[in-house]
């Protein structure tokens, strides 16, 4: 979910409460005071931020909480394909942290990424920021942290494309092989039986693959949201606030 989509999206009462609760947890984890959770519905992110401010919750934490829920929103927008296959192929989470990260903090942020992702991966410096990506995993993750004006942008992209091929192709191929083996035992005058066999066997293969894919999607989404939570929290603690006079120091 990009910044423009996030600003225009309308949040339900349930999402509103969830975002405020998550934002409150983020604020408390960073040593700030706990705030209450208000009540509302059909609100924009800016309206939620405004209410959160009155409730004693940092509006920056609200933005981060909303971005952490972005993977779920992506699934909702993905539509029919997600319903058929049991989950999306790609995820995109993004948020901005007020302030900029000192260069000496980048190494520590990368270590936080590795701990949260439970994967060593590869890291490189890119235009004053850092890019980290998984290596050798079918469900790939790419994290990009870069300066953007007086803030720091954190973008996490998850791509399960290669995993989709493995998940669906092998069960379907096995089902097709079984159809061939069993179909050879039928006489040519049992076409209806053969068609039923093909439909039932291939259907079973697809349903098995869909179950595996849906389960993997749930775990991958949880991994991404945990990663965003950990990285945004760590970056927020290390960032130099705008106007502090310490930038570039």
Written account of the structure:
The chain has 249 residues and is α+β, with helices and mostly antiparallel strands. It is 57% helix and 15% strand. It is built from 9 helices and 5 strands, in the order ααααααβαββββαα. It has helices at 3-8, 13-29, 45-54, 59-68, 70-78, 80-85, 106-117, 161-183, 191-238, and strands at 90-98, 122-126, 129-133, 140-148, 151-159. The protein has a 5-stranded antiparallel beta sheet. Helix 2 (13-29) packs across helix 4 (59-68), helix 3 packs across helix 4 (59-68) and helix 4 packs antiparallel against helix 9. The longest helix is centred in the C-terminal third of the chain and has 48 residues, at 191-238. The radius of gyration is 23 Å and the shape is globular.
Beta content comes to 5-15%
Structural class: alpha+beta
Strand order of the largest sheet: 1-5-4-3-2
What characteristic shape results from the CA principal axes? globular
Q: Which blocks of ≥5 consecutive residues have pLDDT under 50?
A: 33-41
First-to-last CA distance: 33 Å
Tally of separate helices? 9
Helical residues, percent? 55-70%
Q: Would you count the extended β strands for me?
A: 5
Largest sheet: 5 strands, antiparallel
Mean pLDDT: 74
Rg computed from alpha carbons, rounded to a whole number of angstroms: 23 Å
H/E element sequence: HHHHHHEHEEEEHH
Task: Please summarize what this structure is.
This protein is an alpha+beta fold and 249 residues long.
Can you tag this structure with a few keywords?
15% strand, single chain, alpha+beta, 249 residues, globular, 5-stranded antiparallel beta sheet
């Amino acid at each position: 979910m990009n910044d423009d989509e996030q600003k225009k999206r309308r949040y339900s009462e349930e999402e509103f409460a969830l975002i405020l609760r998550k934002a409150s947890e983020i604020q408390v984890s960073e040593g700030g005071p706990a705030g209450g959770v208000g009540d509302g519905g059909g609100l924009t992110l800016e309206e939620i931020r405004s209410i959160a401010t009155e409730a004693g919750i940092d509006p920056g934490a609200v933005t981060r909480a909303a971005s952490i829920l972005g993977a779920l929103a992506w699934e909702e927008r993905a539509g029919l394909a997600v319903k058929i296959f049991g989950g999306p192929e790609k995820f995109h989470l993004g948020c901005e942290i007020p302030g900029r990260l000192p260069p000496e903090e980048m190494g520590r942020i990368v270590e936080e990424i590795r701990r949260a992702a439970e994967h060593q991966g590869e890291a490189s410096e890119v235009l004053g920021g850092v890019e980290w990506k998984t290596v050798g995993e079918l469900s790939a993750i790419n994290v990009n942290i870069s300066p953007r004006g007086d803030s720091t942008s954190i973008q996490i992209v998850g791509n399960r494309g290669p995993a989709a091929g493995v998940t669906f192709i092998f069960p379907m191929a096995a089902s097709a092989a079984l159809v061939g083996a069993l179909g050879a035992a039928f006489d040519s005058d049992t076409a209806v039986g053969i068609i039923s066999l093909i439909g039932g066997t291939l259907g079973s293969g697809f349903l098995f693959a869909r179950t595996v894919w849906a389960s993997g999607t749930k775990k991958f989404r949880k991994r991404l949201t945990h990663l965003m939570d950990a990285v945004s929290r760590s970056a927020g603690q290390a960032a130099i606030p705008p106007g502090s006079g310490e930038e570039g120091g």
